[in-house]
Structures are given as C-alpha cells and as structure tokens.
Design a protein that fits this description.
The protein has about 240 residues and is an alpha/beta fold. It is about 45% helix and about 15% strand.
Length: about 240
C-alpha cells in the first residue's frame, strides 16, 4: 500500500496549474483531499473529475490572504476527515516588473499571497499537527528563491522568504513535522498571466517556451509525501532540462 493512501491533504491554489495536477495525482494514489482556491467553478469541476475517477475530494473556497478563511479551511478539513496529514502551500503569484515601475500594489499582493499566505497556512495546521505528533508541510518555492533575476526583485524576495520559513519549520520540527521546500523552474501554468509589465511579460513568455508539464511538480510532491515517516525530503529543485 502506498504511503499516500488515506492521507488527508490540503492543497491551496488547487483550481489550476500545480495545485490541480497535484490533486489529481494524489487522489489517484488514495489521498483524501481538501482543495482550496478562490474560483469555485474550477474547484467544483476538479472535485467532480476526481470523484468520477474514484478519488476522494471536497473543497472550500479560500483566499489565503485572509487568515480567518485559512483557519476555517483547517477546521473544515478536520471536521470532514478527522485529521490533517499534509498541507501543500501552493497558492502564489508572479507579477514581475522592474523596481522602477513602482508597481507597489503588485508588491503588496505578492507579499500577501506568497509569504503571508504560506504563514497563515502553517499557523492553521501547526497546532493540529502538534497534537497528532505528526504532519507534513510542503511549501512551493521557486528557482527564484535561490537566484535573483531581472525584474524579479520582489518576487524573488518572497520566494527567498518561503525557503527561510521552510528551513525554520524544519529546525523546529522536533521530529514530528516534516518540512519540504520544492522549487519549480519554468512550469506550464497560469503563473505568467499575472505579469502586467509588457516588456517583462514578453520576455518571460518567450522564456517559458521551454516549460515542462505541471505533473512534473506533482510527481515531486508525491515523492516527498510517500517516503516513510522517518525520512524527510527537505529540498527539491525541479526544472526543465533546457533551463
């Protein structure tokens, strides 16, 4: 039996891209899923598709920048399934732009979703996992959390923060909670659609022609989850061979 079988997994940003691919892969391996995102229509479609394939999933419309909504997500998961084994902190935005463009509202949005959203997720599940004396937090970082690039100063800063949070959680785990930081490279998702700066968008769209399928990251997430409880996969970088 797979280590994923019957594990209760929360996935944020589950309505598309990496979240959707991960939901489908984990459901096929027998996980019990709570899917969270803002787009209810997409969540309903995904839950229906998983059910049709024999999987178990439900959803709660959640905006990760609202701590109360994230707390409600954890409570709903606990009420539905009785425990929380894994949190996949996947929700994220990448509206890249040069600092000179002063897109301060976009900076705020990235900080709220990419950093606070991750922290709110951890805050919601940590007491539950401590009580269980087991749990696994998987944070979706980025290659941008390892190297700063042109027009990426603020986005990279948020992803460097995610790496720091992941490592901090690992250090404080007390052998109870596994922490995994997964850093994707160019993956075919909707991430580049949030770029409002025209020149940056053109450059990134050209670069993303080498992008690989979202299931590449779903497989990495599944690998981290399916390890025996005494094995922690703490860091993975997954990118196109051409990158």
């Amino acid at each position: 039996m797979s280590e994923i079988q019957n594990k209760v997994v929360i996935i944020t940003g589950a309505s598309s891209g990496l979240g959707e691919a991960t939901a489908k892969r984990l459901a096929a391996s027998g996980a019990k899923l709570m899917l969270a995102a803002r787009r209810e229509d997409r969540l309903k479609e995904l839950v229906a598709a998983i059910a049709t394939s024999g999987g178990t999933a439900t959803y709660l419309v959640t905006d990760v920048v609202d701590r109360a909504q994230v707390e409600a997500l954890a409570k709903e998961t606990l009420s539905t399934y009785g425990r929380i084994d894994v949190l996949v902190n996947n929700a994220g935005l990448m509206p890249l732009s040069p600092l000179d463009e002063l897109k301060v509202e976009e900076w705020d949005q990235m900080i709220d979703v990419n950093i606070k959203g991750v922290l709110y997720g951890i805050a919601a599940v940590l007491p539950i996992m401590r009580q269980q004396k087991s749990g696994h937090v998987i944070n979706l970082c980025s290659v941008a959390g390892h190297q700063v690039f042109l027009a990426g100063a603020v986005y990279c800063a948020t992803k460097f923060a995610v790496r720091a949070i992941s490592e901090g959680l690992r250090l404080e785990s007390n052998g109870e909670i596994r922490s995994t930081n997964i850093s994707p490279g160019a993956i075919a998702t909707e991430l580049t659609t949030t770029i409002s700066d025209r020149d940056t968008a053109a450059r990134m769209n050209a670069f993303y022609k080498i992008a690989i399928d979202a299931d590449s990251i779903a497989r990495a997430i599944a690998f981290a989850i399916e390890q025996p409880s005494d094995v922690a996969v703490n860091e993975m970088i997954v990118r196109p061979t051409l990158q």
